[in-house]
What does this fold into?
Amino acid sequence: MKDQIMLSKQQKNTLIKDLLKSGVMLRIQVTGFSMEPFLSNGDVVKIQKVRPDRLLPGDLVFFVNQQGSLILHRLIKKKKTENGAIRLQTKGDALVCCDELFRPDHLIGKVCMIEKKDSARQINLESLQIRIISYLFALFQRFKINILFFMKPGLQVMR
It folds into this structure.
């Protein structure tokens, strides 16, 4: 039996941050369904360190939420607060609501490659074609949020 090391959430987060800061690219298996259909449970993503000012809407970002959990969602937009601080807005593609805004120092990294579990296919998220598709996903998510926000109970949608 192999020796195992048990780490707390905070220790795991710190270890991942430190590895990325050192220039290592990490491969992490996706769990959950919040990014369907773009990412599936079991896909493997390659994550690299990125400066927050280099992020664009549509990028898949890896961050620590307020509960200390690691989250991988799509960047929808960057917001400036009243005092000029930057906050990042993310959302899972399959989710209705956005995540809570977070400070750039909670950012762990950015997904640069996806290895699909059902095939040997790899998707380079840095290619121009995929960057455009990712940006369109982000625009669609913002549009979807606006539609849901403005719909009121009892409102009939024409078909």
About this structure: The first helix runs from residue 9 to 21. The CA atoms of residues 66 and 131 lie 28 Å apart.
